[in-house]
Amino acid sequence: MAAEITLEFKKTFLGRASLTAHFRCPLDPPSVTILFGPSGSGKSTILRCLAGLEQPDEGTMSFGDEVWFDATARMTVSPQARRLGYMAQDYALFPHHSVEGNIAYGLTGLSSQEKKLRIDEVLRLLHIESIAQQNPTQLSGGQQQRVALARAIARRPRLLLLDEPLSALDAPTRAQLCKDLRRLLTQLAIPSIVVTHDWTEALTLGDQMAVIVDGRFVQTGTPQDVFSRPTNADVARVVGIETVVKGTITEMRDELATVQVGTVALTAIASPSLESDVFVCLRAEDVTLELAGAAETSARNHLKGTVQTITSLGALVQVTLDCGFPLTALITQSALRDMNLVAGSHVRAAFKAGAVHLIPRN
Amino acid sequence: MNWTAIWVTCKLASLTSVALLLIGLPIAYWLAYSKWRWKFVVESIVALPLVLPPTVLGFYLLVAIGPQSPIGQFYTTLTGSTLPFSFQGLLIASILYSLPFAVQPFATAFEQVDRKLIEASWTLGLSKLQTFFKLILPLSTAGLITGVVLSFAHTLGEFGVVLMVGGNIEGVTRTVSIEIYDNVQALDYAGAATTSAFLLVVSYTVLLLVYTVNRRVWSVWPQK
Predict the structure, then answer these.
(1) I need a labelling partner for A33 at 20 to 30 A (CA). Which of A78, A191, B21, B44 fits?
(2) Predicted confidence band at B163 (pLDDT cuts at 50, 70, 90)?
(3) In 3D, which of B120, B136, B134 has the Cα closest to residue B33?
């Protein structure tokens, strides 16, 4: 049996929906798993259960061949003995220690020389050598995040648990640190589980992801799969985007990028810092459908396609197209009637350059 | 001024503070972190000396440590002497009488340590005991100083319990507050005035110190 983390548990709350975890995630090769869901869905609680800070009421939890929790045997392994790195949402840095002191805190059982070496190594890895002597209260949000990460990885944990690692930061910092975090996680090669409610973070950071809605695991897969092929309406509502395809930036001019997706070229707004490999993301509600031959509009992108499926979602209809890549549009029932769309109809899909989100991919 | 009485008082107050630091810390830790539903029962017992007349506390203590009681007999077989009207007996009484003045500031300080920091310490591999010494204590210094200083000051001014349990033995159990009472009984108003002024200055200085480190002294019970 391949080494994996297995969660099979249930936790009940007073006056709140219970939480059911049915989940496996591989440990080898080390990868990043995203727990994705809206706030209140229970994803942070699952992470806390994994860390041993909270206990489920029923079920089991294991890490490789170690059992970490078993409700029937009334056994649980303490957070100390799980040897993992856990980073809380607000970083929880120790105010009475310097940055260096925070990193040294968990390095018990090492000689002072080994300790010093390890601290220097971690400081370098996270590029925080210059703030080593400062107090956490003097640091910016981004610096605090790095220190918290440094502290968590200093004792070489077997598993890294990050609870909303970027949510305490402001938006411009977040995009940059998200890329940095992905690079760091790849470099560290420690199995990691990251909780987030932000789909751009999920796509950038995750190798695989699980969507949690109302305390249940509703879909697992690669982030691209989950975002582009939600298995049910719950997931679609939560993930909010329907089209995620791989693309390559071929040209960049005045923040307008030309992105090649298969045989199709799209125009998108892009920040100059983007590398050429990207995920192209489109929300179905941003895509309009026109009959072939309609007049041009201000939208930059017009793609010819064939209707594949038509799914009714109440007042709206979800139409999937083949435009050289799968594309999903959300239109009203009356538009569907007026346009006489059926499977196989030829249409033109239109969307503005601003509706195309480009997410770095590595 | 009777320097012997001042010496006895200072010795008693210092030993009481040190003892309360050692006894108070585990009690306060338990009160701050226990999730036991009947915890309030223990909280009330610890707080009892705040409201109980010193004579009542003194009376029960006298009975409890007297030569007829198991504690008294045990002490006698151990040391060959008796507890009532001795400095040791007085010390036990002082510790009990000042217990809430130490435990309450300690517990308040412990409760104010952010739960997330404690959890971070656990996930970094530190046991609960290591976390207590490396995290909780250093972040609670203001509360610790407050508790120690308050028990010192409270013991300085003790009267009823001292009289009941310690009596009035020169050089052994006669404290400053009893000295003042004696002076007044003997119509030695000048002596009483000097000693009173001395006690006033010392108490005020001690409270100044407490208020410097922690301005919320009188919120004596942990705030939720």
Answers:
(1) A78
(2) confident
(3) B136
Q: What's the whole-number mean pLDDT along residues A304-320?
A: 86
Give the total number of structural domains in chain B.
1
Find which of A49, A84, A89, A96 to mutate to test the B interface (most B CBs within 10 Å of its CB). Answer: A96
Query: Where residue B18 sits, what CATH number does that domain have?
Result: 1.10.3720.10
ipTM: 0.80
Q: State which residue of chain A sits closest to B121, comparing Cα positions.
A: A106
Contact at 8 Å (CB) between B220 and B28? Answer: no
DSSP state of A295: P
* Secondary-structure class of domain A4-84+157-240 per CATH: alpha beta
Inter-chain contact A105–B130, Cβ cutoff 8 Å?
Answer: no
**Which residues on chain B are in Cβ contact (under 8 Å) with A88?**
116, 119-120
Interval A18-43: pLDDT, tens: 899 888 888 888 999 999 988 888 89
Q: What digits encode the pLDDT tens for the residues B31-44?
A: 999 989 899 999 99
Residue A94, chain B, CB below 8 Å: the answer is: yes
- Cβ atoms of B105 and B217 closer than 8 Å: yes
pLDDT of residue B32: 94
Contacts of A18 (CB under 8 A, 6+ apart): A10, A11, A12, A215
Structure tokens at A54: 């909270």
Q: For chain A, give the percent of residues with pLDDT over 70.
A: 99
User: For residue B62, with 0-12 CB atoms within 10 Å meaning exposed, 13-18 middle and 19 or more buried, which class applies?
Assistant: buried
Query: Does B138 sit within 8 Å of A92, measured CB to CB?
Result: no
Q: Which domain holds residue B183?
A: 3-213
Distance from CA of B62 to the nearest CA of A (A): 46
